[in-house]
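Subject: complex prediction, re-run

Hi both,

The earlier run crashed halfway through, so I resubmitted it with identical inputs.
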Amino acid sequence: MKENKRDNRYCVIMCGGIGSRFWPMSRADMPKQFLDFFGTGRSLLQMTYDRVLEICDPSNIILVTNSSYFDIIRRQLPDVAIDNILLEPARRNTAPCICWAVHHIYAKNPDASIVTLPSDHLILKEREFLRTIEEGLDFVEKGDRLLTIGLKPTCPHTGYGYIQLGSPVEEREGIRKVKSFTEKPNLEMAKVFVDSGEFYWNSGMFLWRADSILKAFGELAPEIANVFDAGIKAYGTPAESDFIAKAFPTAPAISVDYAIMEKAGNVYVKTADLGWSDLGSWKALYECSPKTAEGNVTQNCSVLTGDCRNTIFATEGDKIIVAAGLDDFIVADTDKALLIYPKKDEQNIRRLVNEVKDRFGEKYV
Amino acid sequence: MKENKRDNRYCVIMCGGIGSRFWPMSRADMPKQFLDFFGTGRSLLQMTYDRVLEICDPSNIILVTNSSYFDIIRRQLPDVAIDNILLEPARRNTAPCICWAVHHIYAKNPDASIVTLPSDHLILKEREFLRTIEEGLDFVEKGDRLLTIGLKPTCPHTGYGYIQLGSPVEEREGIRKVKSFTEKPNLEMAKVFVDSGEFYWNSGMFLWRADSILKAFGELAPEIANVFDAGIKAYGTPAESDFIAKAFPTAPAISVDYAIMEKAGNVYVKTADLGWSDLGSWKALYECSPKTAEGNVTQNCSVLTGDCRNTIFATEGDKIIVAAGLDDFIVADTDKALLIYPKKDEQNIRRLVNEVKDRFGEKYV
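This time it finished cleanly. Structure:
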């Protein structure tokens, strides 16, 4: 084991997703994680990267993404070494992504402990986040434990997964066994969940030792483990990318929640309040953004409104919007497309994006 | 007098205006007359030019514009000789503009008859237009007469000037003496005008012989005549532009309607039905555009709508709009600004443009 605890700590940032719900701001060639949603000058990915620099050395931060996003990542995070960017040759959900990243790290450092993070979420309470991750890593480093971060729900959100808390393990650090996972419940059930106080939102952040999660893959997801175990001699060598090019597409597309977390017996949850949102939709973005007296939100843009309420305005670049007479709308504008849509109907946007693709072509979506 | 009637016929196209009511499509550096409103590939100015090629030789078509639009005009009408583009060094409304153009033509051909046209109007009935202009020129060429074209009103429009018809002169050609001019009446009065059948819209198109209108300037608007008479030796010579640079800004800013037409005794009106609109506002453009079953109009753009009604959508370039839940809106989008505004409140747009200028800067208006 290396001398310093910090030297064994790694961070895997998953940044290969496509998000169609933020169309037209997010498109297949520029998904949500690369967007500067809050006009701060940093994209969600960049903010995620900045945040984890406190947890581990830059050389221990690994990005896993689709090969088509290599150029964007180089542009947004020029300091990341090319060797630390793992390019998936195909989209296979989170389990293969994580399995590869862990093998890659394990080959360099078998004592590694790893925090795996989505790149497209909002975290407002950075200090609380860092404390949570530090304590979580301390916890998983002590044994064969898989840890997820559970967030206290603020509303009966039907778009999130829920974690049911089990018995306390180390009360001091707010860590519990996980009793069950439930994917996106209906509103009625979500209300029961929230009222019970027993259910927390699943953040999609995972902490474990490299050996623990590799063992779990072997036991619970052999169809994935077999694919990646075959490359043990290649990881960390020049042969790695050739191996991945052939092997990766043969792995089944499964989420790590489904492949591992819902099945494993050693799964724990650390509860936290991080000022978190998965920014899964315009509505979610609206909810977590500062509002004018009329309830309007402006993203990245100068807006002159008359008689507009509860509306979110988003543009790219140096553009202005003049609007009146809108209530509860999404107004999102890019150089390729303009969306003006009732916020309450935002669940239709995914379908609309498909219709746009069919009618006007790939370049718009 | 030259041999051929056509050789004595000239056309003056006034294309120096700024129109803020079509913001953001029209801006100070790209006013309405230069826009391709109907996605036909030709701007309103180009369509005006194409139309008058039937009336006179290209060498007899004179454009009068503000000097700042020289480049746009060269781009849009590359066939027009530079000598035929008169560049006003200042904005002085229509009377000085016309007085200069007439002097310029008179110096070349004292037997000239001239039709003077705005460049930013829509005319759907081209054959009727040509017939009207031909007959009108025949009429003014016979004597000292100032002729305007009056359009049969289709609604009590409060944005137009009205011409009250007097006694018939040459019934066969639909020409009457003018009894009175009335600028933009209120709605009540406009209704009375239209119901009476005696009032026609003032199209801003004028026909006269060069000597007739110069005489009228001398008699009725000496403050303008004096300015331009001083250059008689310069017109048609290399000294013309130097003379204009000094003299033009000293002319008062007055419309030709006010300076001449409302005062002259020899004013006539030829009535016509030209499928005409001055395209003075989004609403006017909406009214004269083809509509979907839901009453929507799309200008230059691909639109995917759900539950939108009576709305006009306009974009620049190759952009799509996805919209729902809009009724009676203007949606106008450029690379600099996006306007989403209730159509019924469009009279506010002029004020808004000023507010935009104050708050966000010149470059947006």
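The interface with chain B takes residues 24, 302, 304, 306, 315, 319-326, 329, 331, 333, 335-342, 345, 348, 352, 355-356, 359-360, 364 of chain A (CB under 8 Å).

- K.
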